[in-house]
Design goal:
This protein is mainly alpha-helical. It has four helices and no strands. The protein has two domains: 61 residues; 37 residues.
Amino acid sequence: MKQLCTTLSALMLAAVLATPQLSYAGAQQNKMATCNKDAKAKGLSGEGKGDERKAFMKECLSAKSEQSAAGSTQQNKMTTCNKAAKAKKLAGDARKTFMKECLSN
């Protein structure tokens, strides 16, 4: 009986210790998927975009986690979209269309 209790305790401890790692891995995967989607939306995929894409992905993946408050997440998205629009030298209706699409992703 004592061995059964020890075994169950060890299994429960292992489960508790593994849970944060699993949620962290899931969050990182979600972040990677989001950054890939954003990079594609910004036209950072394809030939000749390697260095730009690497820089964007590095910045995107090192940004605050998705668990940040919704307000700051939206603010980060706005900042990122503004930078992308400026880099593309968009103005007027083209900028408005780009920003609408960028912010909805």
